[in-house]
């Protein structure tokens, strides 16, 4: 057995900051949320509820936890207006007091430590079925110092039943960069933020669980000079020769692959 050690170098963690806010509408497509200042997570429930028999505490059962919070921003995506109870009419006319609609949201928070600072890692938060309600907005006269107005919304969520029957319905999911395979993390970020060839989308809970049950990995080709047979070894970085899922056995060239197509179609050479 090993005795406990406190405050090891590299293990003094802290969390700070928020960036990469993305709004996802009912069409599933993501839009960058510029000007996002903060997301305050204020879950409710989860408190213990005691039960007594003959004056003695018999059970102490936690109540169901529900995810809620508030958003503060300098501005918001144009498409968000219709989810905030506005209807946009032709030629620049917008009307208030319309029905609100649920949306999805993602944002990233930083994880730092004592050796790498805020570059240590991050967490990607996915929030499903968000319904926002506005708080008071205040506009003041201009003075000597310019102070931009901010917008804020309180929000609640409606949880979704996950594919696993062992879990309760979910509305908030976190992806930890330090615990996720680098290739899988890159794949998820391309899914969420989009690429030149595909739009940004938020996976459903079923899709998300499936993606993590069969993660995308990077493989390195290790030739054996004795047998002439090469082995595939999983890489712990995004650098490698092949990229794919182990359960499928189908791979494509990695971004940093040493495989190069030869003059014969379908034949590749491995550069050292």
Tell me what the structure shows:
By secondary structure, the chain is mainly beta. The chain has 2 domains: 14-214; 216-272, no CATH class. It contains 2 helices and 18 strands. The strands form 5 sheets. Strands 1, 2, 3, 6, 9, 10, 11 and 12 form an 8-stranded antiparallel beta sheet that branches. A 4-stranded antiparallel beta sheet has the order 14-13-15-16. The radius of gyration is 24 Å and the shape is globular. It starts with 13 loop residues before the first strand and ends with a strand. The relative contact order is 0.13.
Class by SSE composition: mainly beta
**What percent of the residues sit in helical stretches (DSSP H or I)?**
under 10%
Total strand segments: 18
Q: What value does the average pLDDT take?
A: 90
What are the segments in which pLDDT stays under 50 over at least 5 consecutive residues? Answer: none
Major β-sheet annotation: 8 strands, antiparallel
Task: Report the span from N to C terminus.
Answer: 44 Å
Principal-axis shape equals globular
Order of helices and strands: EEEEEEEEEEEEHHEEEEEE
- What is the gyration radius calculated from CA atoms? 24 Å
Give the count of helical stretches.
Answer: 2
Strand content: 35-45%
Number of self-contained structural domains: 2
């Amino acid at each position: 057995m090993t005795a406990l050690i406190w405050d090891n170098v590299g293990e003094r963690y802290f969390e700070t900051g928020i960036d990469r806010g993305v709004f996802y509408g009912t069409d599933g497509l993501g839009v960058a949320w510029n000007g996002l200042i903060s997301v305050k997570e204020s879950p409710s429930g989860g408190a213990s509820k005691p039960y007594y028999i003959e004056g003695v505490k018999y059970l102490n059962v936690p109540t169901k936890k529900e995810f809620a919070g508030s958003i503060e921003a300098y501005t918001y995506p144009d498409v968000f207006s219709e989810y905030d109870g506005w209807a946009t009419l032709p030629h620049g006319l917008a009307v208030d007091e319309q029905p609100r609609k649920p949306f999805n949201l993602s944002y990233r928070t930083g994880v730092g430590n004592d050796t790498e600072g805020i570059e240590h890692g991050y967490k990607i938060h996915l929030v499903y079925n968000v319904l926002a309600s506005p708080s008071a907005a205040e506009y003041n006269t201009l003075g000597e110092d310019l102070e931009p107005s901010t917008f804020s919304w309180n929000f609640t969520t409606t949880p979704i039943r996950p594919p696993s029957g062992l879990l309760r319905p979910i509305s908030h999911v976190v992806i930890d960069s330090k615990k996720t395979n680098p290739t899988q993390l890159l794949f998820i970020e391309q899914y969420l933020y989009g690429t030149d060839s595909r739009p940004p989308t938020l996976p459903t809970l079923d899709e998300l669980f499936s993606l993590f049950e069969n993660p995308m990995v990077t493989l390195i080709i290790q030739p054996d000079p004795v047998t002439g047979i090469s082995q595939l070894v999983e890489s712990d970085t995004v650098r490698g020769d092949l990229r794919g899922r182990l359960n499928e056995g189908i791979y494509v060239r990695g971004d940093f692959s040493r495989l190069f197509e030869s003059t014969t179609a379908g034949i590749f050479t491995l550069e050292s």
